[in-house]
Write a structure and sequence with these properties.
Blueprint lengths: L1 H21 L1 H4 L7 H8 L10 E4 L7 H7 L6 E5 L2 H10 L4 E4 L5 H6 L8 E4 L8 H14 L5 E7 L6 H13 L4 E2 L10 E7 L4
The structure holds S-adenosylmethionine (SAM).
């Protein structure tokens, strides 16, 4: 059982690294996020039986494990991932969750096709700091369309990339659309260290 888990973990890490080598800007990290970052990404989120959750860029499932463990209703999860090989891994690992091979630039229409109610929570692993301005804007626009009163958007940014113009621009654009974000303490127990950032749509 333990061997099984370890080899599954290694398979995920290897695929992740392989995809990073082929497409560094889209993958945005050399290894999946740590369980410590995953826990911080899920900390204090409203996940009740009626809540729906959208995950953008689940990769090999570093956050998905924790989402699945805290989500009462598996039918209320949607993951949108660009890389088909990651989606294949995710579907094997989480047969009761729904993954879409697709681009977060079309997140609104992809999510609408599921006919679920608007997401209460959007968890994003997307590497916004490495996206071109137009890509960033298109994805933020989709997030804006998906958010409703009381919903939460959460992502992370690496400390070493936090001051990059593209990272600052992303935060400013989001702050203009939603109330100013909340930033966690530095998570030194993730490599590289990161901040968790949360935006809430005003309303309830
Ligand atoms: C930094 S990795 C994070 C993966 C995982 N959430 C984690 O924390 O280990 C970014 C992920 O976003 C995916 N991605 C990048 N651009 C995307 C896009 N436009 N639409 C959907 N997924 C995208 C990549 O394929 C990759 O799986």
């Amino acid at each position: 059982m333990l061997n099984n888990l370890v080899s599954k973990k290694h398979r995920g890490t290897l695929s992740f690294f392989r995809e990073f080598v082929c497409n560094p800007l889209a993958v945005g990290a050399i290894a999946p996020s740590s369980p410590n970052l995953a826990k911080a990404m899920l900390h204090n989120l409203p996940l009740h039986s009626e809540d729906t959750i959208l995950e953008l860029g689940p990769g090999t499932g570093a956050f998905t494990h924790f989402i699945r463990a805290s989500l009462p209703n598996a039918e209320h999860y949607v993951g949108i991932e660009l890389e088909p090989r990651f989606v294949h891994l995710l579907e094997r690992e989480f047969p009761d969750l729904h993954f879409i091979t697709g681009n977060a630039e079309q997140a609104f229409s992809l999510y609408q096709q599921t006919q679920l109610k608007a997401p209460s929570v959007i968890i994003s692993g997307l590497p916004f700091a490495s996206f071109r301005r137009q890509v960033q804007d298109r994805i933020v626009n989709n997030i804006h369309q998906l958010m409703s009163a009381g919903s939460v958007f959460r992502t992370f940014q690496y400390v070493h990339a936090y001051a990059l113009p593209s990272a600052v621009r992303f935060r400013h654009t989001m702050d203009e659309l939603f109330a100013t974000h909340q930033r966690s303490q530095v998570l030194f127990n993730n490599l590289p260290p990161a901040y968790v950032l949360t935006w809430r749509m005003a309303g309830c």
